[in-house]
Structures are given as structure tokens and as C-alpha cells.
Amino acid sequence: MPKSTGREVVSLAVLGDERVTWRPTTYATERWGCSLRFSYPIAKLADYRTRHAELEASPNPFATVVLAHLAAQDTRGDAPRRRQVKLALTRRLYERGYSRERILSLFRFIDWLLALPAEQETLFWQDVQEYEEERTMPYVTSVERIGLARGREEGREEGLREALRRIVRARYGVVPEALEIRIAAADREALDELIDRASVVQTVDDL
User: Fold this and answer.
1) Whole-number pLDDT of residue 142
2) Chain center to CA of 159
3) List of residues 6+ apart from 166 with CB closer than 8 A
4) What are the residue boundaries of the structural domains of the chain, listed by start?
């Protein structure tokens, strides 16, 4: 058995959906006369839409995560704007003075979350290269760029499938067989649409 540290443990729910009024703070379950009620604080990322300047000024790496998350929602369907926002967030990593390891770690998250179509992706990398040359700080090398691209193409769809399954289980308790078959066969666009719908529909049958 691991030795106890004597520290208290707390839970925090981070809500990344776009429904302003959805703010669950309790979980309750009951079976065969046994019941459990669990209360927890929440952090609603949508609340930070009005605190953009505060996020921009914060040295906390999680501020970058929140900015990228909100940008992914705000630029859905607008690839040129998403490219500009993605570049701004990438430049911000350099300007924060983070270490190379932290820059690459946060960049991989931004790169995955703000995926771009091929043409915009090419323009984005050209912008990054020009910026790095200006600062003489080539943090993201060509080899790493190839690896990121391959990982994004090979892993993004499977990652989306797993994310969708988790959302469905959390909201409805189970992934029906018919939906599992649909998830397994869906392409990236269909998976994105299903994830958006899974966050708002009332029943799993609506998917």
C-alpha cells in the first residue's frame, strides 16, 4: 500500500462546453439501498471569454490552454482566422520566455486542438519559420514538424473517437452498439460533428 502523505484531496470539474447555463456541481447515484452524493467546485472555461486580456497577461501555462480551447470553438469553420489565432498563440509561447521543453509541450496541444486544412497548414508553418528566423530560435525543427504532422493525421481521428466515447459514457452511461459502429466508421468531419452534438442533445438516441 502506498504511504499516505497526510494531504487532503479535492476534485475540480473543468467544463469546456459552450452552454453558459450548464453548471453541474453534484453527482448522485443510488443502488440497492446504497446512495452516494458528491459535490465539487467547477471551472467553466466559457466564463473566460470576457477575461481575454487577463489570460493574455498571465504567465500561467494553463492560460494558454484556455486561450487555445476558446479559439478552437470561436474559429470553427473559419480556417484563415484559425491560422492567425494559432500563429498568435504560438508566438505567445516564445514571448512568455518558456523553456524549449515547455514551448514544445504546449505547442503540441495547440497544434492538435487548432488543426488546419492542408493549404492553411502550409501557410502557418511558413509564418512560424519566418518568426523563428527573426528570433534565431528554431525550437520546432523540421524533423519535429514531420512527426507532429504524422501524429496528427494518424492519431487525431482515433483521439476524437475516444473523446466522443468518453462524452457519451459520462452523459448517458453507455455507448450503444449502433453508435459504436457509427463512431468506428466516422471520418474526422463526422466525428467533430458528433462531438458537438453529444454536448447538447438530451438523449443518446438523438445521436
Assistant:
1) 46
2) 11
3) none
4) 49-206
Cell of 31: 443502488
R_g (Cα) of the chain, nearest Å: 20
Q: Do 96 and 81 touch, CB atoms closer than 8 A?
A: no
59, 159, 158, 42: which is closest to 102 by C-alpha?
59
What span, in angstroms and rounded, lies between the C-alpha atoms of 123 and 182?
A: 34
In 3D space, the residue among 129, 118, 127, 134 whose CA is nearest the CA of residue 84 turns out to be 127
Q: Is the distance from CB of 100 to CB of 141 less than 8 angstroms?
A: no
**What stretches in the chain show pLDDT beneath 50?**
142-143, 146-147, 150
Alpha helix ranges (H) inside the chain = 52-57, 61-74, 79-95, 100-113, 118-135, 142-172, 177-185, 188-198
For residues 38 and 12, the answer to whether their CB atoms sit within 8 Å is no
User: Residue 39 has which C-alpha cell?
Assistant: 459535490
pLDDT at position 146, please? 46
- 16 in helix, strand or coil? coil
**Residues whose CB is less than 8 angstroms from the CB of residue 170 and which lie 6 or more positions away in sequence, other chains included:** none
pTM of the model: 0.60
Residue 28, strand partner residues: 37
